[in-house]
Amino acid sequence: MAAVKLAGFRGAVSCAREPQGPLGLTLTGRTAEPSGEQVRLSFAGRAPADLPGRLEDAVVERSAPGEYRIASGARSWLLEARSVEVHREVAQRFYAAIPPRPAPLRRRLLFGVMLGIARSRAGIALLRALRP
Q1: Which residues touch 13 (CB under 8 Å, ≥6 apart)?
Q2: What's residue 42's pLDDT?
Q3: What is the dihedral of CA 117, 123, 125, 131, to 10 degrees?
Q4: Strand ranges (DSSP E) for 18-58?
Q5: What CA–CA distances, in Å, run from 121 to 41, 101, 109, 112, 118?
Q6: Phi, psi at 124, each rounded to 5°
Q7: From the centroid of its chain, how far is CA 88?
Q8: Where are the domains of the chain?
Q9: Whole-structure pTM over 0.70, yes or no?
Q10: Which residues are within 8 A (CB) of 65 and not within 5 positions of it... i.e. 6 or more apart?
Q11: What are phi and psi of 111, to 5 degrees?
């Protein structure tokens, strides 16, 4: 079976171990893709003992079922895990694809008037008096 690339990181990658929980290792960093979005890989398996707390420009590949290879620079580590979860922060791309709906003119006017009234002490007192 050929290796399948799960993620490529650019720059610093944080390696967090969780020995007590179901996820033994979580890698967090920015993807090497042009978008540079935040990506997090969580492995359901024990982290290699000699894996440092921080990597640079790491690449994660699935080399066989249940076996993953983490490479950074000249070093690499093998990790056995039941599964891996890949989470990408896509909010920036999502909001770029779906522009916000402009507020209706009446609502903008209402809020403009309310903010204008609230600029003075007398206006604040009037708003408090009108509040139910």
Answers
A1: 27, 28, 29, 54, 55, 56, 57, 58, 72
A2: 92
A3: -30
A4: 25-31, 38-43, 54-56
A5: 53, 33, 21, 17, 7
A6: -65, -40
A7: 5
A8: 4-94, 102-130
A9: no
A10: 1
A11: -65, -35
Placement of tokens 């920015």 in the chain: 30
d(CA 25, CA 99): 36
What local confidence, expressed as pLDDT, does residue 89 receive? 86
Amino acid 12 reads A
Which residue, among 97, 60, 100, has the nearest Cα to 76 in the 3D structure? 60
pLDDT score of 1: 62
> What are the distances in angstroms from CA 104 to CA 95, 96, 98, 101, 108?
20, 21, 18, 9, 6
Predicted confidence pLDDT, tens digits, the chain (132 residues): 678 888 899 999 999 888 777 788 999 999 988 878 899 999 998 888 888 989 999 999 998 888 999 999 889 999 899 989 999 888 877 888 888 888 899 999 999 998 998 899 998 998 889 887
Please give the Cα distance from 30 to 17 (Å, whole number): 19
| Phi–psi pair at 108, nearest 5 degrees | -65, -40
